[in-house]
Amino acid sequence: xxxxxxxxxxxxxxxxxxxxxxxxxxxxxxxxxxxxxxxxxxxxxxxxxxxxxxxxxxxxxxxxxxxxxxxxxxxxxxxxxxxxxxxxxxxxxxxxxxxxxxxxxxxxxxxxxxxxxxxxxxxxxxxxxxxxxxxxxxxxxxx
Length: 143
Description:
Blueprint: H1 2-8, H2 14-20, H3 26-29, H4 34-53, H5 58-70, H6 79-87, H7 89-97, H8 99-109, H9 112-117, H10 126-129
Helix pairs in contact: 1-4, 5-6, 7-8
């Protein structure tokens, strides 16, 4: 898991972690060398790439693309909530085709802390963030 985290955030370096905890030497005291740190990052990159390239995950990627076309503001929704929506055929189809269902889903699933900090966001603007899309058949998820 640490490797996947490091792979997602390449700006975090071995030395930069010590700047967060000055004088503590967190990595050194835990026995993590710069080489082991780099190995973890590379392993994380390979692991994430294998997940991304797995044919079983293509439908999820396609569904995420549909979500992003329909509602471009995924930054205010926790990722686990988006994932749950993408896995529920009925709810996802309603989100894509029914504005009222989409607005209700966003209202229920948005991260209140993020939206309160962001002064440009309001409940009235959710419908203006929805983009119409045409969906025939949803990409089938692997079982």
